[in-house]
Amino acid sequence: MSEVQALFSVLRQTADARVADAIQRLVDNGQDRELNRINLLDFSKATGLPEEPVIAGFLHASRLGLFDLTWNVLCPGCSGVLDAHSTLKSLRHDDYNCALCAAGYEASVDEQVEVAFTVSPRVRRIAAHDPNTLPLWEYARQIFWSSGIDFNEESFSRLIDEVTLEAIELPPGEKAVLSLQLPNQFCIVFEPVTHSAQFLDVGGESTRERQQLSVVFNRLHAPTGTVAMRPGPLRLTLDNQSDVRVLPAVWVAGDALHELLGKRKPILTAKRILTNQTFRDVYKADNLNIDQRLKITSLTFLFTDLKGSTALYERVGDLAAFDLVRAHFHALLDIIASEGGAVVKTIGDAVMATFVSPEQGLAAALRMREAMDALNEQRGTRDLVLKIGIHEGPCLAVMLNERQDYFGQTVNIAARVQGLSVSQAIHVTGPVIETPAVAAMLDKASIAPIRKHAALRGIADKVVVFEIP
To answer: Up-side HSE of residue 5: CA atoms within 13 Å toward CB?
Structure first.
């Protein structure tokens, strides 16, 4: 058995067997480009396998060395990859700039950081392992743009035929002169390797006189800015003063380009990975640096606690109580993982969990309540009374006590809301109840939330909360 076959054998023991088989088929039979920056949500759709087992399978495969995991910072305007990091620890705070869109961005892990997987070169060598060997258009498709751009063959041909006036491969230290006819539209000289751009504001009356423009590609001084030009002939001199091959192209920044870049596919975001139980389990030491703070604009927090657990220990004894509490934890953790959430920590008999969306949190809460009822019925008691609170909002992802954790008022409110429950009721806040998917879920279950104002410890103003009876 080869080393790679042995690794796939191990993968089948840790991941869903169907997912492991699908991954191996991809490695054995996929085209090179299909093995570079794999979009897992796309893979899930194409194979018909559920997203959560697919994500878990690739995370295990990456940990085994079958794939390299990258955190790609995306431009929200064009979905170009502004930087690619092998670990979240190297993610910078707010100094990412897109030359194509002429804008700077702060890397939000909500939507701007894509998590993608590329086959390891020791498993299978593909062209993207040496990007400088890729043809110009394959470089644009596989390296510059993210896996979230929906570039099928038809749209890619349109990029080449309708959007591009000229494109060239220019080796280090060489010059090239292009002769082209400028249309009466805004144009861009864009170079994806050094990520530099020169904007051409073409307007006014057409001219027959040949206009001149020189663009120098230098890693230290990437060309920027806008030059006013008229429709007509242009002699464009391109000078590659960098130490790498560059791939400049002249694009018409019209409706066709904007339409192409507007065709987006869902991507696996850093926020979703951070709230994934498998990631937290297998990448415990590879999350954040101790002094790193990542802003998340929206995350759902769920807190649980057992009511009267101290009295339970006194009433039934340590051993019986321990078995009950352990059964309760086992049920909760299974539900959290199956609903796409992750356990941040347990404190005594309490659980803190995160979810990407409020509807996932509420679905988990409703199942938790049913699970406690089932456990109580099995034992003929009412000993397990679970208090649940849910809140959604912005927060910071941080490292505390060598573990990825979360900080901020959203976390505080979620913990306090849980404290309002005195029975099997669930308490949620306004941002949760106002989510359309949550409203639809409650309507389908014929559950009418009870609105009330509550004073939360440590929170200055009263908060509107809703009891889910």
So the answer is: 2
How far apart, in Å, are the Cα atoms of 306 and each of 65, 170, 310, 331, 371? 41, 67, 9, 13, 13
Strands (E), 173-326: 175-182, 187-191, 196-202, 211-217, 226-229, 232-240, 249-252, 294-306
Instruction: Give the torsion sign (CA, 181, 184, 190, 196).
Output: positive
Phi-psi region of 380 (alpha: psi -120 to 50; beta: other; left: phi over 0): left
- The DSSP output letter for 38 is B
> What pTM value is reported for the model?
0.87
Residue 214 is encoded by which pair of tokens? 């020189």
Residues of the chain with pLDDT under 70: 1, 93-94, 220-224, 285-287, 308-322, 380, 383, 458, 460
Question: Can you say whether residue 143 is alpha, beta or left, with left for phi > 0 and alpha for psi between -120 and 50 degrees?
Answer: alpha
Q: What is the pLDDT of residues 201-252, one digit of tens each?
A: 999 999 999 999 999 998 765 556 899 999 999 999 999 999 999 999 999 9
User: Strands 196-202, 226-229: parallel, antiparallel or unpaired by DSSP?
Assistant: parallel
* Superfamily of domain 288-468, CATH level 4: Nucleotide cyclase, GGDEF domain (3.30.70.1230)
Largest CA distance in the chain: 96
Q: Which sequence spans correspond to the domains of the chain?
A: 3-127, 159-261, 288-468
| pLDDT tens digit sequence for 336-381 | 999 999 999 998 888 999 999 999 999 999 999 999 888 888 876 7
Cβ(371)–Cβ(324) below 8 Å: no
